[in-house]
Amino acid sequence: RTIRLVPLKILISSQNGRQNLIAFHEKANRLNSYRLDYMSNVRLEEPCERYDALREALVKVEGHMWGVNCRWSTKRLEHVGFDVQIADDEQYIIQRLEREKRCGRIEKLDEHNYRFIADVFDTNEMLPWIRTFISRITRMSFSNRTAENKFKADLQEMYRLYGLDGGEEA
Protein backbone atom coordinates (compact mmCIF):
# COMPACT_ATOMS: atom_id res chain seq x y z
CA ARG A 1 0.00 0.00 0.00
CA THR A 2 1.04 3.57 -0.50
CA ILE A 3 0.83 6.15 2.26
CA ARG A 4 1.98 9.72 2.57
CA LEU A 5 4.11 10.49 5.62
CA VAL A 6 5.98 13.40 7.10
CA PRO A 7 9.19 11.88 8.55
CA LEU A 8 10.02 13.30 11.97
CA LYS A 9 12.64 11.09 13.59
CA ILE A 10 14.44 7.77 13.22
CA LEU A 11 14.81 5.62 16.33
CA ILE A 12 17.20 2.68 16.50
CA SER A 13 16.57 -0.08 19.02
CA SER A 14 19.50 -0.77 21.31
CA GLN A 15 18.17 -4.31 21.85
CA ASN A 16 17.71 -5.50 18.27
CA GLY A 17 19.07 -2.75 16.03
CA ARG A 18 15.78 -2.23 14.20
CA GLN A 19 15.30 1.19 12.72
CA ASN A 20 11.89 2.82 13.08
CA LEU A 21 10.66 5.98 11.46
CA ILE A 22 8.41 8.12 13.61
CA ALA A 23 6.23 9.95 11.12
CA PHE A 24 3.02 11.90 10.78
CA HIS A 25 0.47 10.04 8.65
CA GLU A 26 -1.32 12.88 6.90
CA LYS A 27 -4.50 11.09 5.81
CA ALA A 28 -5.08 9.46 9.22
CA ASN A 29 -3.94 12.62 11.03
CA ARG A 30 -1.85 10.64 13.51
CA LEU A 31 1.65 9.92 14.66
CA ASN A 32 2.91 6.40 13.94
CA SER A 33 5.99 4.24 13.96
CA TYR A 34 7.10 2.44 10.79
CA ARG A 35 9.90 -0.09 10.45
CA LEU A 36 12.36 1.14 7.84
CA ASP A 37 13.10 -2.37 6.59
CA TYR A 38 9.43 -2.69 5.57
CA MET A 39 9.52 0.40 3.38
CA SER A 40 10.16 0.41 -0.35
CA ASN A 41 9.70 2.78 -3.25
CA VAL A 42 10.08 5.89 -1.11
CA ARG A 43 9.58 9.16 -2.96
CA LEU A 44 10.47 12.64 -1.83
CA GLU A 45 7.83 15.31 -2.27
CA GLU A 46 7.60 19.00 -1.44
CA PRO A 47 8.57 20.09 2.09
CA CYS A 48 5.79 20.05 4.66
CA GLU A 49 4.78 23.52 5.82
CA ARG A 50 3.79 22.13 9.24
CA TYR A 51 7.09 20.31 9.81
CA ASP A 52 8.31 22.51 12.69
CA ALA A 53 4.97 22.25 14.53
CA LEU A 54 4.89 18.48 14.02
CA ARG A 55 8.46 18.10 15.35
CA GLU A 56 7.57 20.23 18.36
CA ALA A 57 4.52 18.03 19.04
CA LEU A 58 6.71 14.93 18.81
CA VAL A 59 9.14 16.36 21.36
CA LYS A 60 6.22 16.81 23.80
CA VAL A 61 5.05 13.20 23.53
CA GLU A 62 8.54 11.64 23.58
CA GLY A 63 8.48 11.97 27.36
CA HIS A 64 5.99 9.07 27.43
CA MET A 65 7.57 6.79 24.85
CA TRP A 66 9.33 3.71 26.20
CA GLY A 67 9.89 2.19 22.78
CA VAL A 68 8.51 3.26 19.43
CA ASN A 69 4.77 3.35 20.18
CA CYS A 70 3.46 6.89 20.37
CA ARG A 71 0.28 8.95 20.15
CA TRP A 72 -0.55 12.61 19.72
CA SER A 73 -2.47 12.74 22.94
CA THR A 74 -1.23 11.96 26.42
CA LYS A 75 -4.82 11.56 27.68
CA ARG A 76 -4.68 7.74 27.62
CA LEU A 77 -1.36 7.04 29.27
CA GLU A 78 -0.73 3.76 31.06
CA HIS A 79 0.72 3.96 34.55
CA VAL A 80 3.46 1.49 35.51
CA GLY A 81 4.91 1.15 38.96
CA PHE A 82 6.96 -1.47 40.72
CA ASP A 83 9.02 -1.64 43.90
CA VAL A 84 12.37 -3.37 44.07
CA GLN A 85 14.23 -4.53 47.14
CA ILE A 86 18.03 -4.52 47.16
CA ALA A 87 20.66 -5.82 49.53
CA ASP A 88 23.40 -3.65 51.07
CA ASP A 89 25.88 -4.71 48.38
CA GLU A 90 23.52 -4.16 45.42
CA GLN A 91 23.80 -0.43 44.75
CA TYR A 92 24.51 -1.36 41.13
CA ILE A 93 20.79 -2.21 40.81
CA ILE A 94 19.85 1.38 41.65
CA GLN A 95 22.53 2.67 39.28
CA ARG A 96 21.07 0.45 36.57
CA LEU A 97 17.54 1.71 37.25
CA GLU A 98 18.76 5.30 37.01
CA ARG A 99 20.70 4.59 33.81
CA GLU A 100 17.88 2.69 32.08
CA LYS A 101 14.78 4.51 33.36
CA ARG A 102 14.14 6.41 30.10
CA CYS A 103 10.90 8.33 30.76
CA GLY A 104 10.40 6.92 34.26
CA ARG A 105 11.54 8.11 37.65
CA ILE A 106 12.97 6.41 40.72
CA GLU A 107 11.88 7.08 44.30
CA LYS A 108 13.80 5.90 47.35
CA LEU A 109 11.34 4.37 49.83
CA ASP A 110 13.90 3.37 52.47
CA GLU A 111 17.44 2.02 52.69
CA HIS A 112 16.62 -1.16 50.76
CA ASN A 113 13.49 -0.36 48.74
CA TYR A 114 13.00 1.76 45.64
CA ARG A 115 10.03 2.48 43.40
CA PHE A 116 10.07 2.86 39.63
CA ILE A 117 7.20 4.90 38.17
CA ALA A 118 6.37 5.78 34.56
CA ASP A 119 3.41 6.94 32.51
CA VAL A 120 3.80 5.50 29.03
CA PHE A 121 1.85 4.87 25.84
CA ASP A 122 2.37 1.10 25.88
CA THR A 123 3.16 -0.95 29.00
CA ASN A 124 3.84 -4.05 26.88
CA GLU A 125 6.99 -2.44 25.50
CA MET A 126 8.39 -2.37 29.04
CA LEU A 127 7.70 -5.98 30.05
CA PRO A 128 11.00 -7.48 28.84
CA TRP A 129 12.92 -4.85 30.82
CA ILE A 130 10.75 -5.25 33.93
CA ARG A 131 11.32 -9.04 33.81
CA THR A 132 15.02 -8.44 34.44
CA PHE A 133 14.10 -7.32 37.98
CA ILE A 134 11.86 -10.32 38.78
CA SER A 135 13.79 -11.57 41.80
CA ARG A 136 13.74 -8.11 43.36
CA ILE A 137 10.17 -6.95 42.66
CA THR A 138 8.10 -6.77 45.85
CA ARG A 139 5.08 -4.89 44.51
CA MET A 140 3.79 -3.85 41.13
CA SER A 141 0.89 -1.83 39.82
CA PHE A 142 -0.05 -1.45 36.15
CA SER A 143 -3.08 0.51 34.98
CA ASN A 144 -3.09 -1.80 31.95
CA ARG A 145 -4.50 -4.89 33.68
CA THR A 146 -4.03 -7.03 30.56
CA ALA A 147 -0.28 -6.35 30.61
CA GLU A 148 -0.12 -6.96 34.38
CA ASN A 149 -2.00 -10.25 34.06
CA LYS A 150 0.28 -11.33 31.21
CA PHE A 151 3.32 -10.56 33.34
CA LYS A 152 1.92 -12.56 36.26
CA ALA A 153 0.87 -15.47 34.01
CA ASP A 154 4.38 -15.57 32.52
CA LEU A 155 5.79 -15.79 36.06
CA GLN A 156 3.44 -18.62 36.98
CA GLU A 157 4.44 -20.49 33.82
CA MET A 158 8.10 -20.01 34.69
CA TYR A 159 7.47 -21.37 38.21
CA ARG A 160 5.70 -24.38 36.70
CA LEU A 161 8.50 -25.06 34.20
CA TYR A 162 11.13 -24.95 36.94
CA GLY A 163 9.07 -26.99 39.39
CA LEU A 164 8.53 -24.10 41.80
CA ASP A 165 5.30 -23.29 43.60
CA GLY A 166 4.57 -19.57 43.57
CA GLY A 167 8.21 -18.61 43.53
CA GLU A 168 9.30 -20.67 46.52
CA GLU A 169 11.29 -23.85 46.17
CA ALA A 170 9.00 -26.90 46.12
Number of strands: 9
> Helix- and strand-based class?
alpha+beta
Distance between the termini: 54 Å
List the secondary-structure elements in sequence, H or E.
EEEHEHEEHEHEE
Count of runs of 4 or more consecutive helical residues: 4
- Main sheet strand line-up: 5-6-4-7
Average residue pLDDT:
91
Chain oligomer state: single chain
Taking Cα atoms only, what radius of gyration do you get, to the nearest Å? 20 Å
The share of residues in extended strands comes to: 25-35%
How much helix is in the residues?
A: 25-40%
Largest sheet descriptor: 4 strands, antiparallel
| Shape category | elongated
Unreliable segments of 5+ consecutive residues: none
Give the gist of this structure:
This protein has 170 residues and is of the alpha+beta class. It has helices spanning 51-61, 91-100, 127-131, 145-161; strands at 5-12, 19-25, 30-35, 78-85, 105-108, 113-120, 137-142, 164-165, 168-169.
